[in-house]
Amino acid sequence: xxxxxxxxxxxxxxxSNGARILRVYSGMPSVRIPEELNGRxxxxxxxxCFSGINRAGNYIGTDMPAASNLFEFCGNNVExxxxxxxxxxxxxxxxxxxxxxxxxxxxxxxKEAGSDIFxxxxxxxxxxLRHRADTPGGLRQILSRLDTxxxxxxxxxxxxxxxxxxxxxxxxxxxxxxxHIFGRNITGEGFRARQCFNGNIPDFKQxxxxxxxxxxxxxxxxxxxxxxxxxxxxxxxxxxxKYRYEGYIKSxxxxxxxxxxxxxxxxxxxxxCKNRYADAEGISNAxxxxxxxxWGEGTASLLKWKHGFIExxxxxxxKF
Length: 320
Prior knowledge:
This protein has 10 helices and 18 strands. The chain has 320 residues and is an alpha/beta fold.
């Protein structure tokens, strides 16, 4: 079937439990998939739906969109996708070769993620979930299909409820016997972080426990966001891991501030300064880096925080 809706066009199938989207046409690199098409609830996206490769009959040549400004929303035309709350399934290879895909947003109904859905999605780093972090959802299924870095944000009533970071990990096999017996080798705490679930609900206590080992074995650049994310959005964060995260952030504040400047993460920089996780030297160095890269807003904010640190030091010096 073919339907135009909300400035988009869809090729879709009517299944026993709702609509399955096969192909999307859009005039923009970001798309919001509707909850229904022709009165049928959208429950799935088909295999290779957003891929530039047609393997499942997704492309129907006679069903081209009437609007001339619409293009096939697939491959390098895809940057972000907002999936509806009704969506339960993502088909095999759905985002195959979407190399410019950055983010996906989904609801709590997602139950199934097909094989190789993120193959060659080299820019995909952000997942936004429209449900509280302590309710079941599809995160575990998505992570099972992804071994690269992923930042996950949970939303509750339009505000970030929690943030979890899953670093990249690598997996390899070595032959350890003549009879073609292989040993499995896994490198990186990202794999261990992906096991921190109770059913389909993230286990925050278990997640917080792995940081001790991760902080020793992984680089600051790899795991600093695990600590910072838990501190910025402390959902179910107990005192002991909180102090461990704070100690790590403070002891590595110089390097972390430089990373945040490079990524222009102004909110995180403010958080570091406001909570005194960054010291005067770290702030001064970050301000210099921001100025060198031409980031005016970051430079001004950091210089303001630097001035505040100097004034506070003066007050403490002359306080009797």
